[in-house]
Amino acid sequence: MCPNTMFQTKSNIKKNTSIRLRSLDFLKGFSIIVIIYIHSLWWLTNPPDLWIFAWQWIILDVFGPSLFVTMTSIGVTISVLKQQNNPKPEEKSPLIRILKRALILYIIGIPFIGNFLVPSPFGFFDPRFMTQQYIFQLIAICQIVTYFILKIRKEFRIIIVICIIIINELVFNYLLTILAPLGVTSTEFPLSALNNFGAWIFLLFFRAQADLSIMPWIIVPILGSIAGENIYSNIISRTRVESTEIPNRSRVNFIIYYGLILITIGIATGLMPISNYKHMGMLIFLNTGNPVNIYSLPAFLFRGTTQNLLYACGIAIFLSGLLIRLIDFQQLEQSQVKNIKKETRLNRTIYNLATVGQFSLTIFIMHHMLILFKFWVYLPIILVFFIDVAYISLNLYIILLLAKKSRGKYTLEYLIRSLIK
Which of 145, 187, 213, 235, by CA, is between 20 and 30 Å from 325? Predict the structure, then answer.
């Protein structure tokens, strides 16, 4: 048996009988690599080549923040249900742990949204910036939403998602209309507008950085919670390492079908071409240096539209179900067979990516070192590609080294665990 098995082996039964689905960590690791790759291309690519970057962004975006946030929601759901069904006296309540973790993440994300460049009487803490959502803030909010949404039946969660989808555009457009006399647009927000209550609603829920606004991204943890609850009830709670029973692969079929349904709905409802969504400059990038002008794209390809979130969330959930079958169930089946010592390159790659997924927030912060060159270095995209690969490799090497040598002791994840105990 490979020492880095996806599940505990029989020799460890007395220590721990719970299983950990490495496929979920694997997907988080893959997602963070995609995010680093796209960010690095954006920061260093020469403007005439930005259209090539934009196409890669459009294609790979479903494996970026939406995949990461969906995996986070599924992970929180499983963690909460585990703790509720198998409480440990020394552990704090799931709600206290989640609130503490969310607060820490929100604070960590403040430097990424603060005001560094725009003159303002509020300085760094300008409300127009501090109310924006970066990935840390979004994850913090999604974790809290996931906890409370688990108290609602699945059918009602779907109804809530439908209601959010319906009111999102209506409220967004209404707020822009009533705030227009104040000079508020999807890209501009003058300080004088802060005296208006509606402007604060717009800032808190609809205005976005990297289009990660609370509305409509809040549907992602709701949809992810349904998948996470099904994974827990049909797979984790019914699977014990000490059991010699081979897991029934059909238990994961609901996850796969659920993901396919969301993908279908997202594409079917998002085929209508649009030229812009909120402040997204995707078409600007597509037409920078592009010999062919592109004036619109299907709505499901614009990050942050409800159609895009259904499509992207569906892909994340579909991949979760598929990889549970291909990775976790296969590993569990092998663990039931005695004297298996086969360790393949594929198994090592899966394990390494799963490890990266466990320390994904640390590597996300680390990769921002490259942003220091954003305003001074512009290179041909083919050269940036090789720099990107080398930079990703360096980040992965550092994380895997920290995980192996210190068991992640000097990572952000270790710090957060220590603070919420």
Answer: 145
